[in-house]
Structures are given as structure tokens and as C-alpha cells.
């Protein structure tokens, strides 16, 4: 007997619906699965049959053929266990097929018939809503995550046996906490969904001295610009980077949903705390590989730069990273996304990030203080040469940091609170979003060439100054345009519609300070 139910899988960061077909017939007993399957899907046959038997259902010796379609999409993970088991039970007559229409099934099975959680449920359920499905069946652990998608009823189950009873109307299900989450265990409850607690960050009021860094961080946050900080150890580079998330606005709903999907796929999402609202801050160690940074693998998954999407990617001790790892950032920083190509398909991962990098001026960190630095000229050149001109070109602000003064450490003067700075940053963000609402981008750092020509117009004095800067410091075309976008942000912070010479000169000071 033939039966069919619907399930889903992950392709990149998008959910894809998969049709699960089962055919049980007389003949030589066997269990055959087809449909471009990964190893973990193929090995599920014994797990599914054992789970069905241990759930109290008789499994006669039949020839079982399972097909997952479409056949041109790779099926990964253990989330097909539940839909395959349901399809087989329909073919065996335990469940009427009409009762499974408009229902999506997702879940892994234990040998005892328990329905286990899996990663990536949010993206699959979102796609199910778009395709018009009314119900989704997941494990009780995944129910709260699935309920974050409006427009669909979520049925959380803890075992295959209970699911069959529900489908046959032998057990009544009732909403718990949310009208769209239905549970079937009296002792099982789900916390009501709420916004996540903001990530912990260092407050700028605890950041003593270094007014240059404070000003540069506010400019970067206002226009979502990249920063490179060079200075001796202990000057405050890492602490300043950790302060940055505290002055960035919260994610809007679309951004929040996109980030939450990514973290769900990677298994880093706590569904009890609702959608992720704070901008991510990722600080990978310098031993990271290029695949871990930008994403990939045999079955491509998002990397650190995608986990930092709409947030901050902090690379501390930048020259200590493998040079090849640094160079793979070129295209994502320019385009805002990563494309991972495989023979069968191409995977697109979003990567619209603020890159904050920090480095020492030399291997020992004390250059140019020759009373402390013992590095040779060749060592210094080799160390700084690990960061290529192409990467430097993608940095909007480049700061040379001086050590913190002793008086600043002891000074009890109260510094400006992060919340105060954040209010100014939010004001500039609102101004930019209003200005660019018809152009498809939100921040000055995202300006295209057409946007630069329209919104970064200079007067004669500013043009002459820019020409002298361009020729004296041998700026590239990319560097020139990034300088204009930085000047646009500084003008916005001053509340000016036009860009004046003072805005250009401050932007140039940040841009060429490393030259």
C-alpha cells in the first residue's frame, strides 16, 4: 500500500519541503530508501523499524520502499525519522491518510519511539507557512521554537505512540501558554515566548580614557563601518570592541527572524527565550580555518561571518590569523554574502557584518618604542605584511592607538554611558533609513556607486582637499569611495544635509592614519 506525508530539510539557511513516500508490498522482506540521501538518513532504517515495534505496532515482513523527493536535493539529518514512520503506519492501516493532510512532520526517533529534537526547525516551519500548511508536528523540545512562526499550529509530541493516538483522535490536545502551541503531556509545559535577554557587554562608562577610540566607535556604529585598530597590548582595543554591541540598535523583526534561523540551523538557539533581538558579536580564535570562518564543509553550513550577520565580527590579533583565512574575507566584506559552490549546488549565506579588527604594530607589540621593541625591520614588515592592501582597502577607519595614561586610569570622572551613545546612534540610523527607504539599503556603508553620486556630493573646497589626499596617499578607487561614505556618516552625526570640509578632513584622518 502506498502513502505520502510531508516533511522538510535545510538547504543553506532556507527550509525546503520534502515529500516522503512509502510503499509496503508483499515480496522478499527488505527496507530500501532512495532519493539522494546522506549517510545519516540511510542508516535510519533500523532505528525507524525498532521505534515502530517498541511503540506497540506490529511490523509484518514486507518489502518497504521509501522515497524522498525531489530527488535532486540532498537530504541530511535525522529529521526524516518521524515522517517515514508515519508514512509506514499509514500504509499498515494504523492511521487514516486523510488525517495527515495539511500536516508537516519533523523529528528524530529514539529506539524506544521517543520523538527527539533537531536543529533548523524554524526555517522549515517558515517555509511550511509560505506553502500553506496549517499544522506542524515536532518534538516537545522544538515546539516553542516552531511557534515563533505565526500562522501555523504547532503540535508537540514526545513519542510516536502518542502521535498515532492524536491523529486517530484517541487523545485530545489542548493549547498550553500559546494558542498556537498544542501539547499532549499534562506534565509538559512550554515557557511563553519572549524576547531574548540582551547579551552582556561592557559599558562605555567603564572604558577609561582613549577619546579617539570612543569617537571612532560611535562613527562606526552610526554608519556600520569597518574598523582596524593598531596599538600596543593593553591599550584598550579588545575592550572597545566588546563595548560596541552596547551602542548598536536592536534588530528589526525581519533581521531578527533571519538571525534566529541561522542560529537554529547551527544548534545555537535557545527557543525558550524567543527571537534573537540583540545584534550578534562573534570573536573567533586566530586558529580558525577559512571554512569555519566563511562556511562550507561536505554539507555546507554557515560559518562565523554568517553567525555575525547584522552584527559584529571581531578579529583580535589579526596578523596571527592564517593569511589565507584573512584573504577569504575580501568578497564577503564587499558583497555582504558568501557563495559556497559544490558540484551539485551553490549555497548562499548572508554575511552583512561590521568587521572590527585589532592588531599589534609588531610581533612584540611595542613598536615604535625602540626602548622596548627588539623586533627587526624585516620582522615588522613580515608581521604587518600578513594584512594585505586589499583587506586594508576594506577598512573604513584605521586607528593607531596609544597606551592608556596613568592619570586616565585613576580618574574618577564619570564617562558617557553606552545608553546615551546608543540613542545618538539610533537617531543617525533612523535618518539613514528614511533617506534610503526607496533604494534597498539602510546604512551609509552600503551605498552603491549611484548612491555615492547622489548623497555624497562635495563642494569645491572639499573636492580640492580630496584630490590632494588621493594623490598624496595613493588611495585606491575603493579607498576613495569608502572615505566619502565615512564623511557622509560624520555629516549625519552633525545633523548636516551636506558634506563640508570638516567632515571630509575628519574622515581622511581616520582613513589615512595608517598610511
Provide an overview of this structure.
The protein has 515 residues and is an alpha/beta fold. It has two domains: 2-183, Ribosomal Protein S5, domain 2, CATH 3.30.230.10; 204-415, 3-Layer(aba) Sandwich (Rossmann fold), CATH 3.40.50.300. 37% of the residues lie in helices and 17% in strands. The protein contains 21 helices and 18 strands. It has helices at 39-42, 44-54, 81-91, 121-130, 140-146, 160-167, 211-223, 237-244, 253-265, 290-294, 304-307, 323-327, 330-335, 377-384, 389-393, 406-410, 418-435, 449-455, 460-472, 477-493, 501-511, and strands spanning 2-11, 14-25, 30-34, 63-69, 103-105, 108-109, 115-116, 135-139, 153-157, 174-176, 178-183, 227-230, 281-282, 312-315, 337-341, 346-350, 354-359, 397-400. The strands form five sheets. It has a five-stranded mixed sheet, sandwiched between helices. Strand 6 and strand 7 form a beta hairpin. The radius of gyration is 28 Å and the shape is elongated. The model is unreliable at 176-180 and 183-198 (pLDDT under 50).
Furnish the topology, listing elements before pairings:
Blueprint (H helix, E strand, L loop, with lengths): L1 E10 L2 E12 L4 E5 L4 H4 L1 H11 L8 E7 L11 H11 L11 E3 L2 E2 L5 E2 L4 H10 L4 E5 H7 L6 E5 L2 H8 L6 E3 L1 E6 L27 H13 L3 E4 L6 H8 L8 H13 L15 E2 L7 H5 L9 H4 L4 E4 L7 H5 L2 H6 L1 E5 L4 E5 L3 E6 L17 H8 L4 H5 L3 E4 L5 H5 L7 H18 L13 H7 L4 H13 L4 H17 L7 H11 L4
Parallel strand pairs: 3-4, 5-8, 8-9, 9-11, 12-17, 12-18, 13-14, 14-17
Antiparallel strand pairs: 1-2, 2-4, 6-7, 10-11, 15-16
Helix pairs in contact: 2-3, 7-8, 7-17, 7-20, 19-21, 20-21
Amino acid at each position: 500500500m502506498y502513502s505520502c506525508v510531508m516533511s522538510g530539510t535545510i538547504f543553506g539557511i532556507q527550509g525546503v519541503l520534502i515529500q516522503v513516500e512509502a510503499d509496503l508490498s508483499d515480496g522478499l522482506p527488505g527496507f530500501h530508501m532512495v532519493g539522494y540521501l546522506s549517510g545519516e538518513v540511510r542508516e535510519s532504517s533500523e532505528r525507524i523499524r525498532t521505534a515502530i515495534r517498541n511503540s506497540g505496532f506490529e511490523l509484518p515482513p514486507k518489502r518497504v520502499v521509501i522515497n524522498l523527493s525531489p530527488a535532486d536535493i540532498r537530504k541530511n539529518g535525522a529529521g526524516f525519522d518521524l515522517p517515514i514512520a508515519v508514512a509506514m503506519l499509514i500504509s499498515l492501516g494504523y492511521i487514516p491518510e486523510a488525517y495527515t493532510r495539511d500536516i508537516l512532520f519533523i523529528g528524530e526517533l529514539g529506539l524506544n519511539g521517543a520523538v527527539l529534537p533537531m536543529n533548523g526547525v524554524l526555517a522549515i516551519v517558515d517555509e511550511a507557512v509560505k506553502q500553506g500548511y496549517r499544522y506542524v508536528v515536532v518534538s516537545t523540545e522544538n515546539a516553542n521554537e516552531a511557534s515563533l512562526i505565526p500562522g501555523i499550529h504547532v503540535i508537540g509530541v514526545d513519542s510516536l505512540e502518542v502521535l498515532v493516538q492524536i491523529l486517530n483522535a484517541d487523545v485530545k490536545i489542548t493549547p498550553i501558554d500559546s494558542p498556537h502551541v498544542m501539547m499532549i503531556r499534562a506534565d509538559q509545559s512550554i515557557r511563553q515566548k519572549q524576547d531574548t535577554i540582551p547579551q552582556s557587554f561592557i559599558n562605555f562608562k567603564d572604558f577609561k580614557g582613549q577619546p579617539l577610540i570612543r569617537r571612532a566607535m560611535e562613527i562606526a556604529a552610526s554608519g556600520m563601518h569597518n574598523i582596524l585598530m593598531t596599538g600596543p597590548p593593553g591599550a584598550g582595543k579588545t575592550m572597545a570592541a566588546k563595548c560596541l554591541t552596547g551602542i548598536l540598535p536592536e534588530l528589526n523583526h525581519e533581521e531578527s527572524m533571519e538571525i534566529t534561523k541561522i542560529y537554529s540551523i547551527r544548534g545555537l538557539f535557545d527557543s525558550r527565550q524567543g527571537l534573537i533581538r540583540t545584534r550578534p558579536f562573534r570573536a573567533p580564535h586566530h586558529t580558525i580555518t577559512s571554512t569555519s570562518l566563511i562556511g562550507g564543509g561536505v554539507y555546507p553550513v554557515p560559518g562565523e561571518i554568517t553567525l555575525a550577520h547584522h552584527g559584529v565580527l571581531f578579529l583580535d590579533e589579526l596578523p596571527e590569523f592564517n593569511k589565507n583565512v584573512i584573504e577569504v574575507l575580501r568578497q564577503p566584506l564587499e558583497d555582504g554574502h558568501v557563495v559556497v559552490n559544490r558540484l551539485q549546488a551553490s549555497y548562499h549565506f548572508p554575511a552583512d557584518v561590521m568587521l572590527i579588527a585589532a592588531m599589534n604594530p609588531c610581533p612584540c607589540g611595542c613598536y615604535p618604542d625602540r626602548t622596548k621593541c627588539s623586533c627587526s625591520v624585516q620582522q615588522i614588515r613580515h608581521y604587518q605584511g600578513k594584512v594585505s592592501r586589499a583587506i586594508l582597502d576594506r577598512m573604513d577607519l584605521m586607528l593607531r592607538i596609544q597606551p592608556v595614561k596613568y592619570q586616565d586610569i585613576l580618574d574618577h570622572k564619570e564617562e558617557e554611558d553606552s545608553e546615551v551613545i546608543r540613542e545618538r546612534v539610533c537617531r543617525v540610523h533612523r535618518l539613514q533609513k528614511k533617506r534610503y527607504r526607496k533604494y534597498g539599503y539602510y546604512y551609509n556603508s552600503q551605498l552603491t556607486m549611484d548612491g555615492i553620486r547622489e548623497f555624497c556630493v562635495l563642494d569645491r573646497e572639499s573636492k580640492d582637499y580630496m584630490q590632494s589626499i588621493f594623490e598624496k596617499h595613493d588611495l585606491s578607487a575603493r579607498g576613495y569611495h569608502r572615505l566619502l561614505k565615512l564623511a557622509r556618516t560624520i555629516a549625519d552625526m552633525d545633523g548636516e544635509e551636506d558634506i563640508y570640509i570638516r567632515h571630509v578632513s575628519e574622515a581622511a584622518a581616520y582613513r589615512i592614519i595608517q598610511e
